[in-house]
Amino acid sequence: MNYRLALMIFLQFFTWGTWYGQITKYLAVRLDASGQQQGAVFATFSLAMLVAPFFVGFVSDRYFSAQRVLAVLALAGSALLFLLPGISDPAVFFGYMLVYCLTFTPTLALTTRIAMYHLAAPERQYPGVRIWGTVAWILVSNLIGYLHAGTSPVLFQIGGTASLLLGLFAWTLPDTPPATSAPVSWRHLAGVDAFALLSKPGYGLFFAASVLICLPLSFYYAMANPALTDGGLPNVESTMSLGQVSEAGFLLLLPLAYRKLGVKGTLVIALVAWTVRFLCFASGNVALFYPGILLHGICYDFFFVTGQLYTDRQAGPAIKTQAQSLLTFATYGVGMGLGSLLSGRMKDVFTAGGTTQWAYFWLVPAGVSAVILCFFLFTRFPESHE
Fold it and tell me: Which compartments does it reside in (predicted)?
């Protein structure tokens, strides 16, 4: 069973990894898009997160098996990815990308729900399944680097093919039935049941930190590729995949950290790593770019995967999908949406005569990360050692 769940995660992250880290550079080179336009297109992912996951979470919680919904969305997304290379207007590209993201973003909660449902001990077994998403990201990043496809239509053709395979494979997954057959209520449709988690001691603080840390996270995902390219880092796509290699290693260490340090301790380590990595990038020293990239494992695993496990524990059986959707809403929706727009704006602010002052650019997310770290350190977190 676990190998099938691992393949599901692999195909999902392979699709995601084809375009997510490269799209701003593609827009700048192919469509001559400004920083604000790049940030706006990158924000379509977050805009979709504000709507789609809750709706699809409601559907899969009430009416349809999660793997069926996943299959339909992946097939629709595949068709849209194949259409993107034919678009040359940034405004039109924005519209198509928004529609695509409306098909992709719900799959993040769906695959988590499917995996958690079929694993006997999610807190122990899920990292071993989730690691295949990291492996997929490493492979596709190196493939794109090898093909020099970072600014090529091949980018979306690879993603479309992977999404097609995911859609077909999803039909073969074991059944993950709706969790409840209770009558439809406006509370469930609006996600009110999931928002009730915010009243639990500790979860409200985690939710707030999740939103805030995604402001600097967007700076990394949206602008690291062009920034490190300008900074002289060789073979950027392949080199940045070292972050996913680090992610794989720290994912294996996560169960130990989660058990020994608790939720708060694990999250604090992640926040320290976020601050340090941005200072490495701000240095402008190519030698320090490498540790900045390698810190990605701690930054991502110790915050976001910990959050998925914490959310699964806090949520009741009837709202697990919506609870994961609440988490993705907070992080990839609200936080990264604002962060994407801010990163694009900051790029334009620090650009003059076609040259971007990346050192000043990276000090912005470094400062935000440091403030969040201080906020988290000095706030009581009563459930840090569940």
Answer: Cell membrane
Residue 132: give its domain's CATH number: 1.20.1250.20
So what's the pLDDT on residue 244?
Answer: 82
**E strand spans, the chain:** 351-352, 355-356
List of residues 6+ apart from 18 with CB closer than 8 A: 140, 144, 155, 156, 158, 159, 162
Place of tokens 């490269």: 22
Three-class SS state of 351: strand
Q: Is residue 184 part of a domain?
A: no
Give burial (CB, 10 Å; 0-12/13-18/19+) of 86. Answer: exposed
138 half-sphere exposure, CB direction, 13 A CA radius: 17
| Contact by Cβ (8 Å): 247, 127 | no
pLDDT of residue 211: 87
**Residue 109 domain flag:** yes
| C-beta separation of 243 from 225 below 8 A | no
Per-residue model confidence as pLDDT tens digits over 335-364: 988 998 999 999 989 998 888 999 999 999
pLDDT of residue 141: 87
- Compute the C-alpha angle 286/288/289, nearest 5°: 65
Query: What pLDDT, on a 0 to 100 scale, did the predictor assign at position 385?
Result: 42
pLDDT at 303: 87
- Residues of the chain under the 50 pLDDT cut: 384-386
Identify the CA nearest to 150 among candidates 231, 224, 215: 224
Q: Which of 306, 328, 331, 326 is nearest to 316 (CA)?
A: 326
Specify the residue for token string 């390219």: 229
Does 385 fall in a domain?
Answer: no
Task: Show the tokens assigned to 248.
Answer: 């794989």
